[in-house]
Amino acid sequence: MSDVEASPANEIQFRSDVTVELVRASASDSDVLFAARVSTQGEQTLGEAQAGTEATAKDRGLINYLMRDRHGSPFEHNSMTFYIQAPIFVFREFMRHRIASYNEESGRYRELRPVFYVPAPERNLLQVGKPGAYEFLPGTPEQHALVDTATRDASEFAFLAYQRMLDAGVAREVARIVLPLNIYSSMYVTMNSRALMNFLSLRTKVEGTHFPSFPQREIEMCAEKMETIWTELMPLTHAAFNANGRVSP
Questions:
Q1: Residue 173 domain-assigned?
Q2: pTM, full prediction
Q3: How far apart are CA 249 and CA 246, in angstroms?
Q4: SS3 149
């Protein structure tokens, strides 16, 4: 159980982090090899494909070839389900990726918890440049103080308005309209490794990639945690992804 879930229902809280947990997974490098080799070897059992515990140079070479030449379908025969807590504005960016399945908590059917995102002191505040070539720079102490104070004040005011409407008998689906985008929500998201690579290629900023990305920091925080989990599940696939410029096949 998270700290948020253990807190009193109406105590306003502020967080500067996100939660990403692996709920279940059927995902390994052998899934990629199993799917790829059917084109040349015909039918085989998964046990035959997984024979041996150590990856061979041939296995590594095949996965790298598939990644390099963008033969993407073998990377789809696996599944990962993540549980994520993050601000609503992050989820709206998530759902632009229409290559995953989402189930999010509903403000129509449950009273939303008063948990709000406030940027951490190390979060860059200045966006310099033009679309596609932004540079993000730290703000001044005065700017950080302004963001922190204004965010907390607006969140508290909005939640009190929400609570007043609920107390007066107003439906949850109506009362929620006053809540800001920095309120936390939670969801399950399920995707395969090909979809995850597409997501990571756009939502992480890593030097040396073929196609530079300039993600908003808050969704990048989610992406980094998801990538850490995926790396442990499919290390050969992750290594090939990095070696080939972090381009989804």
A1: no
A2: 0.89
A3: 9
A4: helix
